[in-house]
Amino acid sequence: xxxxxxxxxxxxxxxxxxxxxxxxxxxxxxxxxxxxxxxxxxxxxxxxxxxxxxxxxxxxxxxxxxxxxxxxxxxxxxxxxxxxxxxxxxxxxxxxxxxxxxxxxxxxxxxxxxxxxxxxxxxxxxxxxxxxxxxxxxxxxxxxxxxxxxxxxxxxxxxxxxxxxxxxxxxxxxxxxxxxxxxxxxxxxxxxxxxxxxxxxxxxxxxxxxxxxxxxxxxxxxxxxxxxxxxxxxxxxxxxxxxxxxxxxxxxxxxxxxxxxxxxxxxxxxxxxxxxxxxxxxxxxxxxxxxxxxxxxxxxxxxxxxxxxxxxxxxxxxxxxxxxxxxxxxxxxxxxxxxxxxxxxxxxxxxxxxxxxxxxxxxxxxxxxxxxxxxxxxxxxxxxxxxxxxxxxxxxxxxxxxxxxxxxxxxxxxxxxxxxxxxxxxxxxxxxxxxxxxxxxxxxxxxxxxxxxxxxxxxxxxxxxx
Amino acid sequence: xxxxxxxxxxxxxxxxxxxxxxxxxxxxxxxxxxxxxxxxxxxxxxxxxxxxxxxxxxxxxxxxxxxxxxxxxxxxxxxxxxxxxxxxxxxxxxxxxxxxxxxxxxxxxxxxxxxxxxxxxxxxxxxxxxxxxxxxxxxxxxxxxxxxxxxxxxxxxxxxxxxxxxxxxxxxxxxxxxxxxxxxxxxxxxxxxxxxxxxxxxxxxxxxxxxxxxxxxxxxxxxxxxxxxxxxxxxxxxxxxxxxxxxxxxxxxxxxxxxxxxxxxxxxxxxxxxxxxxxxxxxxxxxxxxxxxxxxxxxxxxxxxxxxxxxxxxxxxxxxxxxxxxxxxxxxxxxxxxxxxxxxxxxxxxxxxxxxxxxxxxxxxxxxxxxxxxxxxxxxxxxxxxxxxxxxxxxxxxxxxxxxxxxxxxxxxxxxxxxxxxxxxxxxxxxxxxxxxxxxxxxxxxxxxxxxxxxxxxxxxxxxxx
Lengths: 466, 466
What we know:
Chain A is α+β, with helices and mostly antiparallel strands. Helices cover 36% and strands 21% of the residues of chain A.
């Protein structure tokens, strides 16, 4: 526990109503989407970079760990207060400071909710593409810290591709600016991109400068059912080889479709063994041409049925199948490990085959769907933790899934990050030398190991296995 | 000078023919595009990451500075061997290792010449957009180290937007891989982007994994002459507000056009006071629509004349005016300082007016052209060094140009980097705290200050002025 005298100093910094040691509050900030739980000693809601700087100075003085937190929607435990100490919530920093329509640049605070920001820029005809599944509650600060992705990344890239500048409180309490509102800039190291995806270990984000695009004029959605996963995967490659980069190329494998069939009354033909949802956006006339071209390209690849939506309402209906997946999975088994490996696009079918084998070996249902366009597969390992031995089997299966992805030139995580969930496995992907380079940066910038300690890399003795 | 015994060990590493202390060779590697000259002690041409690793280990053992070098086409002195020691040329690492047409990814060695790579991928229908002016001789390794830009960046972004993985020899001699061939990846810190634009101070690039795009079907070029720079600048903003992001939006100011008129017999009407070259690319039919839309948007903004090219040959003719600029400038004055500030797009006219004032104050011709679409202005300060006082006036003018850009929310360098040319001014843009964060990274990763020392940041005593 933190001494009362330090709590008093923290209270002085953020104000009484923004510093809580009440158990109920601490519990509220003890978990994230991993469903793991760690109780912090105190929860702080600072209102400015200045207050955060003071908190960091005090934390360094007293060696108290600080865990920055957006909405706690992360899937890898990045915001969990694993060592007690301070949870530093950015919820009060929730202002969209500026939307510069002339320069297509916005400046926001980190606590702004992703979807609210998207809606605000769309109102003035602009577009912020990154669309993590959690966008209704996730914050932009968390999105930046984890480098969130989403379905639209095939065409538009991930969060970091839109972040051109930051204001950050460093682990030792300095307030610095990185990058800026210009489209180019090469003065000094690109700290902006280093901080994107650094999972809150190298600085606390207090302002974000975001590059925007003009909002595409229109969108069309196709839902295509294939008789095999290979047909769907070939379709992905063929579309891109055909020089079309769709906005979205989502896939669901046979098991996923089975789940949907069992759990819902949505119309999914029996012959369908894989589904692609393909979206294109841009000039209205040009879209018709693109959809026709896509239809022609995929026709020989075992198409069972194609549905095309041209209005937002029709599109929403097509997405129903995809959106029903998460709820449907719960019928398979109560506990889910949601991994998010990414392989080169062309290796997706091979990866799915490997996962099927792993599933058979360990006798655990594994359900795959995700962003086929960029090879990012959400691998859902479904178990019942209450059944003896299932958890251990799941852990072995996860390790084999990671190894498979790496053997195919991929990565353990496309968009969820490492946090604590993947930290035990990081040695599979990153060599000791590369890890040393990363840890050297962390140690130099955070000599007291105050900021989000124990994330990405376990303590040295714990990682010795890999 | 380096002791013979060390030269012998270096010779053992790279082979006799790839280690030279001959004066003629050393002179060849003593300069870059800044026209400054520093003689290295020895020039090495290693053939592999392994050899480079051994060189770095030896350099650390003996405290010899190592200056990595691509083609030496940089404008800020990034590759200059300012402290003697070793020039490490990557010229022999010149193989395109793989072009993966299915995944739109290439792997290359750093010594591959930019244009040769572009041509190789275009042959198979793919596209590598970054196009620095030096692309006929610059290398991809140098492009990555400096994060090169170019005219096409308005639509397509800069070098770092295409670099998804690297193999790097660290300052202390480890060989590490960063990123990989997947479109997404968030395992550990994004060292790839940190190394892009780090000017060879954090590692020596030995392999580059590059994301490619499908080659656009067609291109159209418009050359538009305006009666004022304000009209041209408003055109830039209006086009982008009209939801068109052209491939290229190059501008030339009145003085630039005067130079071209005086030095060439190209047809430039007397009423033209600013020129925009606008290129759009994509689907052939759609381009006609875009060009018509652009013509309508810019019509009320003081258009003197519009020329449209639809074939590569016609396009080449339009680009003649832009390509003749550099040679034309030499007629103004023999010596040129080529700066590359970048401001938010909408501030370009204000920046040009400020530069005109600075030009008047110091009685030095300043000629501006560049990439208006992303606010990146090439500011050419033309003097005759032989005239007493001109150099001093130029230096003061440069500092004022930088200050002006920063006041307008811009940066001192959009694409050329800091090197030694802008190092004395870096304190204008980067606060002490941000510089401390950057230097902390450098010091931790290169404790002996072996790799490209003295670049970006001057020694501490020298920077005290700012």
